[in-house]
Design a protein that fits this description.
CATH architecture of one domain in chain A: Sandwich
Shape of chain A: globular
CATH class of one domain in chain A: Mainly Beta
Oligomer: homodimer
CATH superfamily of one domain in chain A: Jelly Rolls
Strand order of the largest sheet of chain A: 1-8-3-6
Strand content of chain A: 15-25%
Distance between the termini of chain A: 55 Å
CATH topology of one domain in chain A: Jelly Rolls
Number of helices of chain A: 9
Radius of gyration of chain A: 18 Å
Structural class of chain A: alpha+beta
Largest sheet of chain A: 4 strands, antiparallel
Helix content of chain A: 40-55%
Amino acid sequence: MTTPEENKLIYYVKKWVNITKDDESAILSAFEQASIRKKKDLLVPGEICKYNYFIIKGCIRTYYIDDKGVEHIYHIRFDNNWVGDLESFFSQKPSKYYIEALEDTQYIRISKDRLDQLYDEVPAFDRYFRILFQKAYVNTLKRLNANMWEPAIDRYKDMLKEHPDMFQRVPLTYIASYLGITPESLSRIRKKNNQ
Amino acid sequence: MTTPEENKLIYYVKKWVNITKDDESAILSAFEQASIRKKKDLLVPGEICKYNYFIIKGCIRTYYIDDKGVEHIYHIRFDNNWVGDLESFFSQKPSKYYIEALEDTQYIRISKDRLDQLYDEVPAFDRYFRILFQKAYVNTLKRLNANMWEPAIDRYKDMLKEHPDMFQRVPLTYIASYLGITPESLSRIRKKNNQ
DNA sequence: AACTTCACTTGACATAGGTCAATTTTATTT
DNA sequence: AAATAAAATTGACCTATGTCAAGTGAAGTT
């Protein structure tokens, strides 16, 4: 009944909260499984973000395009991570973002209504997301701090250390945007770092 | 039994989740009320952040001091907001931050153990914090975006618009740090903005 | 009221990183 | 394999913001 794909979510939920067998099946039945091909969009600006996505395997980026036509990347996420435009998802108002697959990607997804239902059915799931958001918030504060007060080369070295896989799987242009610099600057930083 | 101070918290909790009268008293009994004078610290680096604080009235900043001795301000918060070093609070490991009163401040506080208890007693409180962290996360992403991709003058104008009170209550030096610039730059930006 | 400290402003100069344009390298498509 | 497109590099130059130092003003303290 439960595929290995879905069980990956259960595995990660159990890392943080206790759930019963009943909870497990309630959770699993709330998700749909799907996949998307490289370069295709899960969401484009103007659309409402109807789902919250959990990546089983693959790579997803979220970004927006500013007035001058420049892309700015918020997130690049791999296996076993959540993605979505939370703001649009929770308000059910149109999004400003693109959510795009950078690799062929398998995911599971849950709609807002279904998630709200699930929160009522399985209070532990409320707690799971409380913990998840808490961690996401702390991490984003750290990223903010690094972007405000650390030079780009330190942010680059940090990423090399924390996410070496990123450089295998994602073009440098995207990594540059995620780090808050231009591709040219990243190129120069890498050159300096290799000498 | 319940003072007006404590009821402010209940008022804000009720904005987001439904709670019973029993829940209300469970919540209220979990908090202690206290106050702190201007320029005094709720937390200094090396200490564990034992409490999460809800400001009833006053102003609190959180900041750290870098290797070069420069202060960097994360948050400046007024009445009806939460403050604390979440990372230290949840891990119960030593903090890197100062949490300091910028005005004489009344607050209520809750310890980690008591909060964990409360989450079990009142599942709605879990949900309340889920929603709170979710919002904090989205807001921090916006702040990150602004700091990465918008010029300082836009961030300044934004603050003028969204938090005009800030300029009444907080020295410009602190506002500059919060905006991610030096006091000198803020001074020049303000000059330019007035002409 | 005088003293001291802190907050703010201004100027001269420095620098990290951005911009634009050309070139090379790598990947994708036919 | 050739053709095309996309990604990455490099150089010359620019700009926003930082740094350091001096000066003025405002606020808190004795």
